[in-house]
Write a structure and sequence with these properties.
Layout: H1 30-34, H2 42-63, E1 78-79, H3 86-89, E2 93-94, E3 104-115, E4 128-139, E5 142-144, E6 147-160, E7 168-181, E8 187-200, E9 203-220, E10 225-239, E11 246-260, E12 263-276, E13 288-303, E14 306-319, E15 326-340
Antiparallel strand pairs: 1-2, 3-4, 3-15, 4-6, 5-6, 6-7, 7-8, 8-9, 9-10, 10-11, 11-12, 12-13, 13-14, 14-15
Length: about 350
């Protein structure tokens, strides 16, 4: 779970979704991970899985929040190019012909990043670079009226240059319902189930099952500017590692500015609350982390099926246990292919 940000949770149904997953950087103990993954304790698996999901979410701010031209349920007519007559006529819109639904989508990304705090530690931050790639297949049929379904399967790989013990892979299956609500200015409501299998060099780390509910709204301000708002709650239903069980709550706002028809600049702020469920003692207070992420991204789409993106993310985590506080910066970019039919 949690490979999606609040703004990108609609699995291709929203304009901010290319592939995502906002995702998202924290190791509970360097010593656990350094011992290796195969045959380690549940806490070791939990700490590496926690770090992996936060890394995936942070990089997804670039790899998936960027393609705001990817239109789905919130398809909107384009504003016409500005002209001298706008003052008299007002803003003009180019009306599109109705087109046949394209319920099948295939996304593929390859990317490379630098980070100044690969282990997500409060002190002794260590730089590293890592590369990754992602493939994703989606089916999003219209059920009736404004109600849509969705089934998606994806696989991610992350490989570090120096800290190979941080390498990880994620396999996800997601299914859900999506409703466009005219009474809420065509906001999108969604209900999802997601299964995630997280591994390190094919060694199992964590299996999670979660239920998610959220809402998203895109506000087109003019021909160049748009705002995207999102809220999402993600509840663990079952996980095979108790230390890893947690609920997550997202709030996301993004501003997109179109520099040219095929070039956009995006500023995205995301707040994530991690509410960990494990309490070993009845009187023990639960751990709560507050993660803030700011992403600055540039997207170039020279072809309808091709995205070239780059930028940076700035994250800081503040916990009710200060041991888990950290700051991290990521910078990089990648290529993405989008096929719809």
């Amino acid at each position: 779970m949690r490979s999606v940000s609040a703004v990108t949770f609609l699995n291709g149904l929203s304009p901010t979704m290319v592939s995502l997953r906002s995702f998202r950087l924290l190791l509970l103990s360097l010593g656990w991970v350094a011992a290796g993954v195969s045959g380690t304790s549940a806490q070791t698996a939990s700490s590496l899985a926690d770090s992996a999901q936060r890394t995936q979410a942070a990089t997804s701010s670039l790899a998936q929040d960027l393609s705001l031209d990817e239109r789905g349920l919130e398809e909107e007519n384009r504003f016409a190019t500005s002209s001298d007559g706008d003052a008299d006529l007002g803003q003009q819109v180019i009306l599109k012909d109705a087109h046949q639904a394209q319920p099948f989508r295939f996304n593929a990304d390859a990317y490379f990043f630098w980070t100044d705090n690969a282990k997500q530690e409060r002190r002794g931050a260590e730089e590293d670079t890592f590369g990754g790639w992602r493939v994703e297949a989606l089916w999003q049929p219209q059920i009736t009226g404004n109600l849509y379904g969705g089934v998606g399967v994806s696989q991610d790989w992350f490989l570090y240059d120096k800290l190979e013990k941080l390498d990880f892979e994620t396999f996800e299956i997601t299914t859900g319902l999506y409703e466009v609500v005219p009474e809420l200015a065509n906001a999108i409501l969604m209900l999802q189930y997601q299964y995630q299998h997280l591994t390190h060099h094919s060694n199992p780390l964590v299996d999670t099952h979660s239920i998610r509910f959220g809402v998203q709204k895109t506000l087109q301000l003019d021909r160049r500017n748009s705002l995207i708002f999102g809220l999402l709650a993600d509840w663990d239903v079952h996980t095979d590692v108790d230390d890893f069980k947690r609920n997550e709550y997202f709030a996301d706002v993004a501003w997109r500015f179109k520099l040219m028809p095929d070039l956009s600049f995006v500023v995205d702020y995301r707040y994530t609350c991690f509410d960990y469920q494990l309490k070993r003692l009845a009187f023990e207070r639960g751990r709560v982390d507050n993660l803030h992420t700011l992403a600055l991204t540039l997207l170039y789409s020279p072809r309808p099926w091709l995205d070239i993106y780059g930028g940076c993310t700035f994250s800081f985590n503040r916990s009710n246990f200060t041991y888990y506080d950290y700051d991290a910066t990521n910078a990089g970019g990648g290529l993405g292919a989008r096929i719809k039919f």
